[in-house]
Design a protein that fits this description.
The protein has 449 residues and is mostly beta strands. It is built from 2 helices and 44 strands. The radius of gyration is 22 Å and the shape is globular.
Length: 449
């Protein structure tokens, strides 16, 4: 799905990528066999650009930025570019290491990092402050700290990522998604943190840290003992513009505090409200203004689409002093509702892999914010692996009532002669010939039966 996600961290990444006219682009594997070889050759200001594929083995795990102010990014995003650490308890490995004083100019962007087994199974940040943007951390594990990311005395920006199915499950395991300790002060901004597990802090845990948690969506995380979404120990933390729902733990099913922690929660949607936070003696909770306990009204949560419907109580109810990229008041959660369009289209695929002769199912969500009915035409296309475009539906005519939204499941039969490979599905709504209301896209694979 096309993500409507822009953060301050994202803007910083754009600045990095656009700066330095003399920078060199080093291609992996076209010019350098491994990601580490590309990094070793790069100098400050360069970009190591990694082609689509799954990267394994030496040089493609335990990857060290070596203090360089470079951008390491995939060509086409985490859906198509995977670092598979192939780690386990007998042969531990992680994805990346930042431990030589890296700054925000050291950028990692656009990878799926999986099967790490180590403290910081996906990434270890030690005494460094990199930018970690737009990655997916899935099925990384540790028996100790930080299944997805471990921050020790580090101040990274962790923005626009997805953490799902990561774990830190030994009896003292902390932070299935992220653990921050030893004076760490990260900014955790605009991430989806979903279905991670730990003994303490299924989503995020801290120990002697100062953490800003801003604009995240945290759902379905589990802690065996304390802090389903967040475990805050001996730390200061602010939680702002976040959605925390459906998390579970023995104590503090959304948040648990310990050892003199101080926590501020404001402009956030917490299931159970302040009652979902365990505050033992010696800790201080400031339950600030703007908090709610309401259904956030995701587009299609059961299919993992956590964008917001226009009627959501999380739209325009975030912190009033911060604005979304559409210049409206900030929303709660990782995805803002783009109000530049008065008619909005969302596509949610039921499956993104299908064989020739199989069925592709897509839920269309259309939203009309006008005060009058809107008639529009919908046209859907498939962009083939050879870049040719084929119309798969429409143009078909629809009408939406004022201030209304609707959903429809569309089914496509994939031709038996469809060539296996990567396709793009694209739908547009508007009024021909010149008015385009909105467009949304997603990628799918046609695979051998």
């Amino acid at each position: 799905m096309m993500k409507r996600l822009t953060t301050l961290a994202g803007a910083a990444v754009v600045l990095v990528l656009c700066g330095g006219v003399s920078a060199t682009v080093l291609h992996v594997p076209g010019e350098y066999g491994t990601i580490q070889e590309g990094i070793d050759t790069a100098v400050d200001g360069d970009t190591v650009l990694v082609a689509d594929g799954t990267y394994t083995g030496d040089g493609n795990r335990d990857i060290d930025f070596s203090g360089k102010a470079i951008v390491v990014m995939s060509e086409n995003g985490p859906e198509l570019t995977t670092v598979d650490c192939e780690g386990d308890s007998l042969d531990p490995h992680r994805g990346f290491f930042f431990g030589t004083g890296e700054t925000s100019a050291s950028v990692l962007q656009g990878f799926t990092i999986t099967n790490g087994w180590e403290s910081g199974g996906g990434i270890l940040c030690w005494q460094s402050s990199p930018t970690i943007f737009g990655n997916t951390f899935i099925a990384n594990a540790t028996d100790f700290r930080g299944g997805g990311i471990l921050c020790q005395n580090a101040s990274p920006v962790i923005a626009g990522n997805v953490f799902t199915g990561n774990s830190a499950m030994a009896s003292g395991g902390r932070g299935g998604g992220i653990h921050c300790s030893s004076g760490a002060s990260p900014a955790i901004v605009g991430n989806e943190i979903l279905a991670n597990t730990a003994a303490y802090g299924g989503g995020i845990s801290t120990n002697n840290a100062s953490v800003a948690v801003l604009g995240n969506t945290m759902l379905g995380n589990t802690a065996e003992f304390e802090g389903g979404a967040i475990y805050c120990k001996g730390s200061t933390m602010s939680v702002t513009n976040c959605i925390l729902r459906g998390d579970s733990a023995g104590i503090g099913y959304e948040i648990s505090m310990a050892d003199g922690s101080a926590l501020v929660v404001r402009y956030s949607d917490l299931e159970g409200g302040a009652g979902a936070i365990y505050v033992p003696p010696g800790c201080v909770l400031h339950w600030g203004v703007g908090n709610i306990d309401e259904d956030p009204m995701f587009v299609l949560a059961e299919m993992g689409d956590y964008r917001l419907i226009w009627d959501s109580p999380c739209v325009d109810t975030g912190h009033p002093d911060s604005l979304d990229p559409d210049s409206t008041r900030s929303d709660m959660g990782a995805h803002y509702f783009d109000q530049e369009d008065y008619v909005t289209l969302y596509l949610t695929p039921m499956n993104t892999e299908v064989a020739p002769g199989g069925t592709l199912e897509v839920t269309y969500t259309a939203i009309n914010r006008w005060s009058f009915p809107v008639t529009y035409w919908a046209l859907s296309e498939a962009i083939l692996p050879n870049t040719h475009t084929r119309t798969v539906m429409g143009p078909d005519r629809y009408t939406l009532w004022p201030h209304a939204w609707g959903q429809q499941l569309i089914t496509h039969e994939v031709p038996l002669i469809a060539e296996p490979g990567l396709y793009q599905y694209r739908a547009r709504i508007g009024v021909p010939p010149n008015t385009l209301y909105d467009i949304d896209t997603f990628r799918l694979w046609v695979v051998e039966p």
